[in-house]
Every structure is written in C-alpha cells, then in structure tokens.
Amino acid sequence: MTSETTAPGGGRAARPAPRPARARRLARRGGGVPVVLLVPALLGLAFLVLPLIGLLVKAPWSSMPSELRGGTVWPALRLSLETATAATAVSLLLGVPLAWLLARTEFPGRRFVRTLVTLPLVMPPVVGGVALLLVLGRNGLVGEWLDSAFGVTLPFTTAGVVVAEAFVAMPFLVLSVEGALRGSDSRYEEAAATLGASRFTAFRRVTLPLVAPGIGAGAVLAWARALGEFGATITFAGDFPGTTQTMPLAVYLALEDDPAAAIALSVVLLVVSVLVLAGLRGRWTGGAA
Q: pLDDT digit string (tens) for 198-212?
C-alpha cells in the first residue's frame, strides 16, 4: 500500500506505507489508546477477574485435601465427567449433521431453524428443564410413549442428566462446526463429486477432515458447558447423590452447610475450566493457536 507526497519540483511521488510489523509493535504497546476506552476496558477486566481471584484467595488451601476427600466430592466429580463426556458424544452424533445441513443446504425456513438451534443458548436453563419434563417426562408428549412402549424413563436418572446437558451444550458445537463449514472451501467437495463420490462419501472423506479443528473446538466447548450445567439438570434429573448429583449441584448444596467444601469444589471446577480453555489454544477466543 502506498500514499502520495510532494516531490522536489512539484511532482507527486509514491511514499511507502508504514511497515505492517511496525504497526503491530505499536498496537502491542497500546499506543494511542483513548482514555475513554482504556478505563472501561480495565474496569471490565477487573469485573471479570476479581471474583476468580477472590475464590483463589478464600480457598481453604491448608484443608483442601481433607475437603476433597469428602464422601460426595469424588462421586459427583466422576458423574460430572462421565455425563459431560456422554453429552458431548450425543452432541457430536446429532450436532455435526445438523451443522452440515445448516451450512451446506438450502431449504425453506433455514434461518428459523438456526434460531431454534441457538435458542437454548439464551433461554434460562431452568426453562429448558421444564420443557424437557413436558416432552420426556412420564406424562410428557414423548416420555409417556417411551415408558409404555419400551419401559424407558428418563427424568431423575443418570440418562436424564446426559439429556439435560446435551440440550444446553449442543448449540455450542453446532455453531462452531457451522462456522468451520462456512469458512472451508466447498470446491473440494465439488471436485470429489465430479470424480464419482457420493455426497455422503464426500462428507466423510473430504468435509470432515477439512473441518476437524472446528469440530474439536466445538466438542471441547460443549463438554465444558455440559460440565457446568446446573439449572436444566436439577429441574429434569433432580439431585440424588451417586445418581444425578453433579459437581455444580454438589457446590450449591455444600454452600448451605459447609462453605469451605463449596469453595474447594469450586476451585476444582475452575481448574478444569482453565485446562479446557488451555486445550482450545485460542481457536475460539481468536488468539494464536
């Protein structure tokens, strides 16, 4: 990129633009940041980080091992890890084809379908739990048929925890995979089709490898969301130690009787969340991979 300047003799001469590397160095130094933007930005950073610092400062580090050896900690942690992994598997099985449908095909009402897919992201989780009860409960639209035909009951079971977590976590995976599909070059799939590959073969052997990083990032986000799910889980699956009591539910109950144990459990969840973000390596946040 060049700009013009006045040369000796009155003519116009090209002037080289500032080097991109220099511009990046200036940006990193924060040069020229208006105070009116810098102050609220720092306040926002403090608003997000101070609660986490407070959690770490107030954590009972000396008694942490004994707090974590409590009878409900490890069963709740094990159940959380198992159900979050199962919910992520369900999200992958159903969410990847749904993302492909939204990104690669045209059909009437596609925007409305995308709105419905993202609805669990914005609706209160408790409302999601009530909706699941009305559909999959013993007297629900589908649950009554599942109970009478197959003897399958989902509410207040471990399977119900997986259903509730998948309901709130799947939109994260769908949005991530759909974005990756829209960013990939569809000409590779068209080239595979011209060579005789069916559309499913092109999806399996061309599309999936192209968007594998997006699928991985979406799966990690879905797993993290499922791990922290609370409202839909307690509404649809209840709180039964060893069966449906996950870590967020254990934290909530411990906060009433044993605040030190609640803080210790919260620190464990915080550490797991940090490890998940570290595993993403900036794929979602836009940083360097």
A: 888 888 888 889 899
Mean pLDDT for 23-32 is 60
For 121, other C-beta atoms within 10 Å of its C-beta total 14
Residue 289: how many other CB atoms lie within 10 Å: 9
Cα(229)–Cα(289) distance, rounded to whole angstroms? 27
CA gyration radius for the chain? Answer: 25
Strand partners of residue 16: 2
DSSP assignment string, 215-275: HHHHHHHHHHHHHT--HHHHHHT---TTTT--HHHHHHHHHHH-HHHHHHHHHHHHHHHHH
Element (H, E) at 3: strand 2-6
What is the value of pTM for the model shown? 0.78
Place of tokens 């836009």: 286
Q: Ramachandran region of residue 15, left (φ > 0), alpha (ψ -120 to 50) or beta?
A: beta
Q: What is the DSSP string of 67-92?
A: HHTSTTHHHHHHHHHHHHHHHHHHHH
The first and second tokens of residue 86, run together, are 């199962």
- Please check whether residue 172 is in contact with residue 225, taking contact to mean a CB–CB distance below 8 angstroms: yes
**Cα 245 to the center of its chain, rounded Å:** 21
Contact yes or no for 221/176 (Cβ under 8 A): yes
Mean pLDDT, to the nearest integer, of 171-178? Answer: 93
Q: Which of 198, 27, 177, 19 is nearest to 104 (CA)?
A: 177
Instruction: Tell me the CB-side half-sphere exposure of residue 257, using CA atoms within 13 A.
Output: 5
Contacts of 205 (CB under 8 A, 6+ apart): 192, 197
Per the listing, tokens 């101070």 go with 50
Q: How many CB atoms lie within 10 A of CB 192?
A: 18
